[in-house]
Amino acid sequence: MITPGGRRAGLGARGEDQAAKYLEKKGYRILERNYRTRVAEIDIIAMHGNTLVFVEVKTRASDLFGTPMEAVGTKKRAKIAQAAVHYMATKGKGLAEAPARFDVIAIGPDGLEHLSNAFEILDMR
Hints:
The protein has one domain: 3-Layer(aba) Sandwich (Trna Endonuclease, Chain: A, domain 1), CATH 3.40.1350. It has a 5-stranded mixed sheet with strand order 1-2-3-4-5, sandwiched between helices. Strand 3, helix 2 and strand 4 form a beta-alpha-beta unit. The chain starts with 6 loop residues before the first helix and ends in a 6-residue tail after the last strand. Helix content is 29%, strand content 34%.
């Protein structure tokens, strides 16, 4: 059976699995994976200490079409932020006072790169 997106869907899922394992080893507690709203999907939502972390995972087999980090542009960031606001409004009970941040994990031919606090969205709550 071919999944939507074909080979890339499998590559993306493997990258998200790798990112989740990496985060857990670093002491993050995974709360949700693939949280979907009508606007966007957040690949991983986790707690790191008392901070709520929304993680975008980008996996690339090559840099032919740009690096994984370059794939998280302004529009993508805005959609992730909207989904984060939705998450906090619907599932974030007890997290309203917790600081939040956006991380990006890029997995490419050169390995895994974790950019903590990769971008900010002002007044997201």
